[in-house]
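Milestone 3.1: sequence recovery, worked example.
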């Protein structure tokens, strides 16, 4: 998933990625029909914690949450924080709603999440500058062919937007198991050392999943396939 004007990686315009896969199960469709409208991000206007949750609270944003395992896990860990997740793939949204609804009675419903079924960057643009405490980009589509590099979410335009929306000291987390995307991401982030400090002192800091970082289905699949997984944390520099 990514969104750029073709030929200009600093301008947000177009969303790439599939929107729907196999037909939803009846229970999933019911959640999409009933729960999603209750917790959907408003279609217009500013996106603030007060508007979404009725109170001031630390605000987190996950770009492309996949099946929602990380989003639901973090929200469950931090019930006093507010979470926004955006995902264009309907089947992923349905799976996330299952987690938020309590996984068929396995745990209480999670109430501190709002969902955007669609373009993450369109919503991120409507967040006031400096309003976010965390932004997550975990296992995004790598678009491995060189001619598709402009489609990657980790590019100059989105990174600058993320920096603008994070408060000073806020954290940007990125995870991938794709070596081509890894090299591309590090190249992009090196260009923005004025905006982010890399939170890394030793190799284990990016080779081992940090505490408080729930595993996603894509990470679990990568490990089953024998892939190495990398975890990166950057802190927004002080203004």
């Amino acid at each position: 998933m990514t969104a750029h004007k073709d030929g200009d990686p600093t301008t947000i315009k177009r969303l790439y990625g599939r929107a729907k896969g196999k037909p939803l199960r009846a229970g999933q469709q019911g959640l999409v029909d009933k729960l999603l409208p209750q917790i959907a991000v408003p279609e217009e206007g500013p996106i603030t914690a007060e508007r979404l949750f009725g109170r001031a609270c630390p605000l987190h944003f996950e770009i492309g949450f996949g099946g929602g395992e990380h989003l639901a896990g973090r929200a469950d860990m931090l019930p006093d924080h507010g979470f926004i997740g955006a995902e264009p793939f309907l089947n992923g949204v349905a799976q996330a709603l299952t987690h938020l609804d309590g996984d068929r009675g396995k745990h209480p419903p999670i109430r501190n999440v709002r969902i955007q079924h669609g373009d993450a960057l369109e919503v991120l643009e409507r967040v006031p500058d400096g309003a976010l405490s965390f932004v997550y980009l975990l296992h995004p589509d790598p678009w491995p062919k060189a001619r598709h590099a402009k489609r990657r979410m980790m590019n100059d335009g989105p990174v600058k937007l993320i920096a603008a929306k994070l408060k000073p000291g806020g954290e940007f987390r990125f995870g991938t198991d794709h070596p081509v995307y890894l090299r591309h991401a590090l190249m992009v982030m090196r260009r923005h050392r004025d905006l982010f400090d890399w939170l890394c002192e030793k190799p284990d800091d990016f080779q081992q999943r940090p505490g408080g970082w729930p595993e996603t289905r894509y990470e679990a699949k990568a490990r089953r396939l024998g892939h190495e997984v990398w975890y990166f944390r950057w802190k927004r520099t002080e203004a």
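The chain has one domain: 2-236. Strands lie at 2-4, 14-16, 59-63, 82-87, 113-117, 132-138, 166-176, 196-198, 230-236.
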